[in-house]
Amino acid sequence: MKIKFKEMLVVALLIATYMLQGCQSKTNQNELVVDDSVFEQDEVIDEHNAQNSLDFLGIYKGVLPCADCEGIETIIELGSGNSYSKKIMYLGIENQTMVEISGTFTWNDAGNTVTLINEGTPNQYFVGENVLFHLDLDGNRITGDLEKNYKLIKQ
What would the pLDDT profile of 96-152 be if each residue is shown by its tens digit? Predict the structure, then answer.
């Protein structure tokens, strides 16, 4: 029984030692200096964009308009390492096969538009929440009555 009492005494002393160490003030604290100009900004800078805020990797599918066919079935998969694969098929044309192109993509400086490398123009897509918007030759969103026809929906 004396052994158990000694063990309990040692445990109690260890606990007391740790508690006393936690109560001691720390003398090696660094002094924090805050520049007031940080709080005087008129404009809030938001660095969120599609590249760093959205879950853009995945498969996007849709039918884009076509001047001389029923539409262009388009499937784009954006993968890791800025890789992509694009499959297209011209609808309403006999003996059509799926054409596949793959390569890498780059982001614009704003982080909201991808450009497919190894792809003829137009090859830019504005990245939205679960959607890719096919852009015109100048990299602008297509507007007007046909606007809704230029998007690929994430699957």
Answer: 899 999 999 999 999 999 999 988 888 999 999 999 999 999 999 999 888 999 999
Q: DSSP strand E in the chain: where?
A: 58-64, 71-79, 83-91, 99-107, 113-116, 124-128, 131-134, 151-154
If you search the block for the tokens 């005087």, which residue do you land on? 40
Pinpoint the alpha helices (H) of 24-147: 50-53
Statement: the pTM of the whole predicted model exceeds 0.70: no
The tokens for 145 are 């009555």
All structural domains of the chain, each given as residue ranges with its CATH number in brackets, are 50-154 (2.40.128.640)
Torsion angles phi and psi, residue 63, rounded to 5: -120, 115
Name the burial class of residue 120, with classes exposed (0-12), middle (13-18) and buried (19+) by CB atoms within 10 angstroms of its CB. exposed
